[in-house]
Amino acid sequence: MTDTSPQPRRKRPTGRRTGDSGTRDAILDSARDLFAEHGYEGASLRAIAARAGVDSGLIRHFFGDKESLFATTMADRTVIPERLAAAVAGPIETLGARATDAYLRLWDDEETKPILLALVRSAMTSQHGAELLVDVIGGRVREASPLPSLDDPRAPRFALAVSHLFGVAVARNVLKMPVLAEMPHDELVAQLAPTIQNYLTGTPD
């Protein structure tokens, strides 16, 4: 007699590597590289998973969505927030020089420059990418340093300092404007530091 009773449904495999603690790290490393190469919009979850050698479902398992993966990658796979936070900690009289020096050195560092390029590409091609740039980097730096919150009266001056440094870095490293690209690091810091210091600590005329 044929057994016609319902059979239990087999669960579909999720692709998760049981006990593989390196899977999450592999995804983050892959995401760091592809975000650096293509920016936020250009790096697909499928491509990130393929480079990491995992099923794309694992990205959602570990991170939920692309936005969370991007934020986690920028926070966990870079030293950018920590270096900037360390630079702003110290005597306020030399804050402009320290912040300028630290930020420009990040662009000269082969480890951090690809990440900064990824952030620039993301910010330039996507409003969402621009918001993530502000949230991820700005938020992490504020957590680790005494910088003003967004509702602080000093916030506009801080925003001007950040925008000034960002513009110079893009002109020097992305647009490769000759005058800036060829200027020695120390000379560029000396030129910029007084203006950045005034933004951060000066008083309006």
From TrEMBL:
Region spans: Disordered: 1-24
Domain HTH tetR-type: 21-81
SUPFAM superfamilies: Homeodomain-like (SSF46689), Tetracyclin repressor-like, C-terminal domain (SSF48498)
Keywords attached to this entry: DNA-binding, Transcription, Transcription regulation
Domain of life: Bacteria
Record feature DNA-binding region, as residue ranges: 44-63
Listed InterPro entries: Homeodomain-like_sf (IPR009057), HTH-type_TetR-like_transc_reg (IPR050109), HTH_TetR (IPR001647), Tet_transcr_reg_TetR-rel_C_sf (IPR036271), TetR_C_16 (IPR041678)
PANTHER family: HTH-TYPE TRANSCRIPTIONAL REGULATOR BETI, HTH-TYPE TRANSCRIPTIONAL REGULATOR RUTR
Protein name: TetR family transcriptional regulator
Organism annotation: Brachybacterium kimchii
Lineage: Bacteria, Bacillati, Actinomycetota, Actinomycetes, Micrococcales
